[in-house]
Amino acid sequence: MQKIVAIAAAAENNALGKDNDLLWHLPDDFKRFKKLTTGHPIIMGRKTFESFPKPLPNRKHIVITRDKDYTIAFDNCVVVHSLESALELTKKEDLAYIIGGGEIYKLALEYTHIIELTRVHAEFDADTYFPELNKENWEVILEEYHPKDDKHKLDFTYITYVRKC
């Protein structure tokens, strides 16, 4: 059975980003994101896709937009117009990752089996937020704390949630 995994970095107040950009720079989190998502399809909204300088290597990008005329000129990118269409394209894959933004996370939550959340230990003013989780539906199976250091200006914790069923 396919697993849908939401992967995100969110502040204590669930802030994800502002003006289509991240609010922090955490190199170890980027490495973890790359390690987990490489070789798997990544599902995202148009704004998230447009925040990348170019498509990420070794991943099929499925970009959701309401704009029926939107096109992307890269072989590893597909445009769809609903989350359901994106999930249909990935149904033969073992894993598919939801990578944002806020609206896509919210739509995908009901289909999500696992959440890989990097909780950034600070609060930020943002225009995009990760949805509030109903703790009754999710169990924490892993927590790994990382204190700030010379490469990371903020403390953060990797938290893996699995859906309770």
Summary tags:
single chain, 165 residues, alpha/beta, Dihydrofolate Reductase, subunit A, 8-stranded mixed β-sheet, 3-stranded antiparallel β-sheet, 11 strands, 36% strand
Kindly summarize this structure in a few lines.
The chain is of the alpha/beta class. 19% of the residues lie in helices and 36% in strands.
Describe the fold and architecture.
The structure is a single chain. This protein is of the alpha/beta class and 165 residues long. The protein has a single domain, classed as 3-Layer(aba) Sandwich (Dihydrofolate Reductase, subunit A). It contains four helices and eleven strands. An eight-stranded mixed sheet has the order 6-5-4-7-1-8-11-10, with helices on both faces. Strand 2 and strand 3 (21-22) form a beta hairpin. The two termini are 15 Å apart. The mean pLDDT is 96. Residues 3-163 form the DHFR domain. It is an enzyme of class 1 (oxidoreductase). It catalyses: (6S)-5,6,7,8-tetrahydrofolate + NADP(+) = 7,8-dihydrofolate + NADPH + H(+).
Secondary-structure element order, N to C: EEEHEHEEHEHEEEE
The CATH architecture is: 3-Layer(aba) Sandwich
Question: Biggest β-sheet: count, sense, barrel?
Answer: 8 strands, mixed
Q: State the strand order across the main sheet.
A: 6-5-4-7-1-8-11-10
CATH fold category name: Dihydrofolate Reductase, subunit A
List strands and helices in order, with pairings:
Layout (H helix, E strand, L loop, with lengths): L2 E9 L3 E4 L2 E2 L4 H11 L4 E4 H5 L10 E4 L12 E4 L2 H8 L4 E6 L1 H7 L5 E7 L7 E2 L8 E9 L9 E8 L2
Parallel strand pairs: 1-7, 1-8, 4-5, 4-7, 5-6
Antiparallel strand pairs: 2-3, 2-9, 8-11, 10-11
GO molecular function: dihydrofolate reductase activity; NADP+ binding
Function: Key enzyme in folate metabolism. Catalyzes an essential reaction for de novo glycine and purine synthesis, and for DNA precursor synthesis.
Family: Belongs to the dihydrofolate reductase family.
